[in-house]
Amino acid sequence: MNDPAARTIEILSALIAHPTVSRDSNLGMIEWIQDYLDRHGVTGQLIYDSERRKANLWATVGPDTDDGVVLSGHTDVVPVDGQAWCSDPFRAEQRDARVFGRGACDMKGFIACVLAQVPAWKQQALKRPMHLAFSYDEELGCLGIRGLIEYMKANGRKASGCIVGEPTGMEVVVAHKGCLCIHGGVHGRAAHSSLTPRGVNAIDYAARMIDYVRELATREAQQGQQQAGFDVPFSTLATTTIQGGTAVNIIPEHCRFSVDYRYLPGANPQRILRAIEARGAQLSAEMQSIAPETGIELQHETWALPFEADVNAAWTALVKRLLPRDRTRNVAYGTEAPYFQGTDIPTVVCGPGSMEHAHQANEYVALEQLSACGSFLEGLGQKLCSAG
Predict the structure, then answer these.
(1) Strand 254-263, strand 236-244: pairing
(2) 292 and 320, same structural domain?
(3) pLDDT value at position 4?
(4) Whole-number percent of the chain with pLDDT over 70
(5) 258: helix, coil or strand?
(6) Among residues 226, 182, 154, 173, which one has the least CA distance to residue 336?
(7) Residue 356 within a domain
């Protein structure tokens, strides 16, 4: 098939048909991509996880030099459980100038656009390489990209620029917040509710922790660092889950809660984490004065690093020149961009679709967006045909 637009739809349909929900393996899709590349004379290297259930893919189109471009996309998608879809989420359906299906927007649409351009790049005899970097488990906290970055470092893989193809409406995103998730486990002492003083109420102490988080959130909004360009120009904290108690007449022995902390580039997440840990230690001491077996345990994990590109860099300027709209913006969601930026590869985020259509029932990407991405990638390929 010689028509890149039709080829993009065909490839996207094949990718959506692989249900690469993060909790499951992505090998079916990643091996399909590897076979596709092989048919076009491109060798794809798989980088497996420790259980060999999932894999990243690295492939190079053109000469294997240090001055090429990395095109990055994640292969995993979020679940469809409990969502009311109008069609099979793992069967691409085209209607109303849109392609519907889980991952159509986030972010198999971008991967399909990239793969559709491979035959043309092969024919063009690129002077600078186009590197394809497809990862797993981005939706679980950018897990797979870490192994891919280690592979790049171990094998001396370098580039002069990187595009992470998350859905941005084909606009250049140059900054996003980081995300730290804090999980609290409160261990109290159960008692009959008629004998309340003999117990240690886990929900009560969780509530006091949650109230402290709310105080920190208010302080960040009113007195914390501010950065223009974000929808919410300050770092935010929110308690997002809570579970506890067993019956209405039992003083609860256990309660769990989670806190989502979205922090600006340049902010120090350890400052907030230390404050929450200090409050947890204070409340644990109070609980243990009543029952020594009680207390509050806190765990944390980084789901996304903050990202901030140099808006005046030559790479940013080049990407902007290849797009109809010469502007940049910031977004609230996290991406794999900071991992590439951390290896001294100038990076921006730019891809087809809108994040407003992702992670929900009837996810879709507009055909116009796929076409715009294809035109952009075609122009980028032509740029890599020149020596400079």
Answers:
(1) antiparallel
(2) no
(3) 67
(4) 98
(5) strand
(6) 173
(7) yes
Question: What pLDDT shows up at residue 172?
Answer: 97
State the residue range of the domain holding 137.
4-176+306-383
Q: Please state, as a whole number, how many other Cβ atoms lie within 10 Å of the Cβ of residue 329.
A: 15
Dihedral sign (CA 54, 56, 20, 35): negative
Are the beta carbons of 309 and 348 closer than 8 angstroms?
A: yes
First to last CA, the chain: 31
Distance CA 257, CA 206 (A): 7
Does residue 207 share a domain with residue 140?
A: no
1 is written with which tokens?
């098939």
**8 and 129 in a common domain:** yes
What pLDDT, on the 0 to 100 scale, is given for residue 326?
82
Number of structural domains, the chain?
Answer: 2
Q: Domain check: are 170 and 195 in the same one? A: no
User: Mean pLDDT in the chain?
Assistant: 95
Mean pLDDT of 279-301: 97
The answer to whether residues 312 and 353 belong to one domain is yes
Q: Let me know if residue 388 belongs to a domain.
A: no
The pLDDT of 366-376, averaged and rounded, is: 97
